[in-house]
Each structure stands twice: as structure tokens, then as C-alpha cells.
Predict the 3D structure of the following.
Amino acid sequence: MSAGGEVTLARIEDAARMLAGVAQRTPVDHASSFSEMLGAPVHLKLENLQRTGSFKVRGAAYRMSRLTADERARGVVAASAGNHAQGVALAAQQLGIEATIFMPLGAPVPKLLATKGYGATVVTEGATVEECLAQAAAHADRTGAVMIHPFDHPDVIAGQGTIGLEILEAVPDAQTIVVPIGGGGLVAGVAVAAKAVAERQGRSIRILGVQAAATAAFPPSIAAGHPVTIDRAGTIADGIAVARPGEHTFPLVRDLVDEIVTVDEDHLARAVLTMLERTKLVVEPAGAAPIAALLAGLVPADGPAVALVSGGNIDPLLLQRIIAQGLVVSGRYMTIRIPLPDRPGQLARVSELLAAAGANVVEVLHTRHDLGLTLNDVVLQVSVETRGPNHQRDVLEALGRAGYAPEVAGD
């Protein structure tokens, strides 16, 4: 049962029938706080609550369900830093197929352990996903195993497109669907499904794609008219850090996605923190990209919008760093450097000023060993909790009125 051909609504509906016993039908929740920000109803499609914590199981399972008996007997192979790995491993377990997954050496430990827990053979070699893809391809050539690409196959795209069907069943009047973009399989499948269903309803629907600015391969590819490879910079959104669009996904994204926007690292960190605080949900940075676009004012307020939260698999250590960065970005944590004369009472005076301004001191460093200081000077570095940008400005002004010259560390 070969899987060539185009991605159609009929194919996506077939995928939905097949996935009924494998993937969960994740909730679509109304988000009142985000609705207030946008000025229009906002709903969240929570694929972070999917089995394996990501949408990836949908495409992987549908792809493998269409393998021939001979192909199944040869097993499957994949390469991934985490979410695709878990999706392939679970789908293979459900379908009784042996799976080998190549993961980079720096793959998050929770994703590594989860992939092994689903019964896959995990090989950790290579520094990047690209190196792992090459190793997986070599393994396929050597053993005959079927390569399960993370995004660039019609069946994978169709499997991801089942999310589009579920969104419009839950929110039939949705005007905009906001989707994270890596290689393009998710947004391509959702766009095919949503546009076809909306056309059947006699209306249009807008698909907005979101990429991490550090690794945004689609804008230059669309400008060039074909997929191009970019230099991949570091990003906390590793799940969408793809350096080149797929050959199958590119034309679908070019023709069906209405706009692609990018968000920076601060936007992503703030989105993860906001989701944690407002919705009590743990979301990985790639999954939070649509929320980042919403918070950055990049989503049009022209009717009900659905933000596709694509995954929730995040290393706890990374989450800790992201929360800290999110607090800084949202104006709720600030580190101040204050040059002081080296005489008794200065630390106490600054502490009193900070307390009077309502800033909670978290950490203090008092040093004489700073470049540019004279023998009669010291530097006080104070980290404080604040209530937002306006409160931070009040704290700095209070120190200034008292004769100090505070500087915000990192500015």
C-alpha cells in the first residue's frame, strides 16, 4: 500500500478514522485571558495533552499504518531530538513494528527515556538532528528498514491534518488558526483540512504560521520560490528548529498558509511562562510559538482564533531557565548594579529604599573587585522581584532621587 500522491481532505479523513484507536482527541479550550488580549475569542487546541505529549504520534501512526506487510516486517527507523522519536516509538509499539530511533547526544533526558520506554531501540550518535537523519538513512539502506520522516511525507502530513478537522468541529466559526512551523508538516496538514472544510461551509479561513526567528527557513524559501537551507541558530524552540522546508510541505505552505510570522526568544520565554501562570499548563517553547505570536500582537483580531499548542515535552532544567527569562522579559525580575561610596551604612540605606519602593530583594552581591572602581568605591548588585515595567521604573527613579546611579544589568 504505497503512499504517494497529494494530500487531500479525503486522505485526512481516512487518517482520522485510522487514528481513532491510537491518538487521543485532545481538548479545545476557550482562553478568556488571551481573548481579552486579542479582543476576540481565543481557543487553545491542546496537543500538549496528546499521548507522548505532542502531535507527532498522529503522522507517524498514519504513515506506519499504510506500510505493506513486507515493510512492517523490516521495521522502521527515524531520527529526532524527542517528539517525533516518541511518536514513532509509540506508534510502532501499537502496530507491532520494530523501531530504531537515532537521537542526538544532547537530546533532553526525559524525551530519551520516554522513547526507550515505548520499546524503541535508541541510538545516541551525532551532535545534530541533521547528522542523525543521515545515520538513520544509512541504517535504512543497510537493513531495509522504512524511514519515517518527521514531516516530509504525504501520509505524515495527512496524519497531522486530523488536528484541523478536530479544531473546526470544536470551533466551527473559527476565523484564524495559528500554527507553529518547523519543517511544515503540521501547518500543511492543518491548512489542507481547514481550508477544505471552510470551503465546504461556503466561507474562508485564515492560517497563520509561526516560526522561531533564530531558525526561520520558510520566509526566505517562499521569497526564493523553492526550499532553501538556512544557517540554523540556537533557539529554545528546538521542536521547530528546522533548517530547510520539505519538498512535500513547501508547496502546500506556499499555497495555503496566509502569513508566516516570526517570534524571538524573549517572546517564546514569555509565552511559556504565561501558559504556566494563566492556564496551569506546561508547554514547550515550540508549542508555545502561537501564544508568543499572540502576545507579540501578530495575530489579527478579526474573529474567533485557535492557537495550536503543539507539545508539552520540556526538560525541567530548560523550563527553569525559561521561567527565569520570562520573568525578566515581563518586568517581574530585575538585577541592578549600583556604584556606592565605600563607607558604612550604604547597604542598609539601599535596602530601605528598595523596601519603601515595594521591591523584594532576592539576591545581593557586594564587591570591591569590579573593573573601573577606585579604591574608595564598591558595587552593589541586587536582584529584586518587581510587579512589571512600570514598577521597575519606579524603583530605579527612587534610587536616582536618593543620589544613586543604578544600572539594570544586561541593558
In short: Residues 331-408 form a domain with the Alpha-Beta Plaits fold (CATH 3.30.70.260). The chain has a mean pLDDT of 92.
